[in-house]
Design goal:
Blueprint: E1 6-7, E2 11-16, E3 20-26, E4 36-39, E5 43-49, E6 54-61, E7 66-75, E8 80-86
Parallel strand pairs: 1-6
Antiparallel strand pairs: 2-3, 3-8, 4-5, 5-6, 7-8
GO molecular function: protein-folding chaperone binding
Domain CS: 7-96
GO cellular component, one term: cytoplasm
């Protein structure tokens, strides 16, 4: 009898620190030996296999660049934790690129150039919001 593979959706959530973006994929009993998470500069490719032929795949374009060498993941009992090292100190408005985003959290920065709730936005030159200036 041939096993039929079923592609499933999994809930995911994320948060950030000034240096990292952390993502949780809520998937139970992921096979740690076959889990593949490939980090690239502007995307993450995720391929997770679970019991009973279930599989979760996602190609995730990223809002800002990451450092693949400084990024990692860990398979836990009920979820997969992904830690991506930011390539710059920019606060991410969203996980994925989004044209319509106009608000985000800012962090206190050194040299007094910004605080939480700062009125000055520091955009990277490749930010979609930068092009609107």
């Amino acid at each position: 009898k041939e096993k039929v593979e079923e592609l499933i959706q999994c809930r995911h959530d994320w948060y950030q620190t000034p240096t990292h973006v952390n993502m949780s994929i809520f998937a139970k009993k992921v096979d740690a030996k076959t889990a593949v998470i490939e980090f690239k500069d502007r995307e993450v490719n995720i391929d997770l296999k679970m019991p009973d032929g279930k599989r979760y795949q996602m190609n995730l374009p990223l809002f800002q660049p990451i450092e693949p060498s400084g990024s990692s993941f860990e398979v836990l009992g009920t979820k997969v934790e992904i830690t991506m090292k930011k390539a710059n100190g920019i606060s991410w408005a969203t996980l994925e690129p989004s044209e319509g985003n106009k608000s985000w959290t800012t962090f206190g920065t050194t040299k007094g150039s910004g605080t939480v709730g700062s009125r000055v936005m520091h955009l990277s030159t490749d930010s979609p919001l930068y092009a609107q200036k």
